[in-house]
Amino acid sequence: MNCSRQYPSIPLKTALPFLISRGEHKLRKDSQVKINAYAQGKDSMISYFKQRIATRPAWFPAIVASALLAILLAGGAAWGAVGCDLNDPDRDVSRLFPESTGYKTIYTSVQQRGGGKLLAEIEAKLGDNFHGLYETIDNPYTIYEIYTNKKKLGYIHGVNQKGQFGGIQVFLALDLDGRIKAFYIQKMTSQYAGKLRDPKFGRQFVGLDLGDFEHYDVVSGKASGKINEIGNPAPEAEADFRASLRATKKNLILMDTFVFTSQTPSSNRGATQR
Question: Where among 79, 97, 130 does a domain terminate?
Answer without folding.
Answer: 79
